[in-house]
Input
Amino acid sequence: MEDDSREEHRTPARRRAGNQTLLQKSVSLLSRREYSRRELGEKLRRAGTGEPPEKIEAVLDALEAKGYLSDKRFAEQLVRAKASRYGRKRLEFELRQRGLRPDEISEALAGLEETEESRARAVWERRFSEAPSDQKERARQFRFLLSRGFSYSAAARVIGDAERNG
Output
């Protein structure tokens, strides 16, 4: 009885969402943002549709065939969205976590090599207003850049330039 009362209070959109087919649910999710194949598959499994894994895989295959689902497009979008805040290592980690293959990851990150130091400098400038005053502050700024996924060499050049020019 309690479940019926909750059903009455659900909005029509929520009631329709519960009755969607697997394909409709997938397209609805993809209309909001890009997903990697692994992410979308996990989201569909967690949705509690009760569908067997084979059917979910078949829907994912159909979405890829129609061009609605693309790991390459997802990787490019994620890199574009986060490259101004994170270094190559962090971006690579995030792409791996979302189930992309090594060749897809390296292709998506190919253009970042030349900009690693300039992106690290921009992140450093947004966070810190001046060069480190002592060794403790230098270490703190260095750790910050490394935690954002920038390479050791890029962090060293950015902080070294700040100390020379500061």
Summary: Residues 53-66 form the longest helix (14 residues).
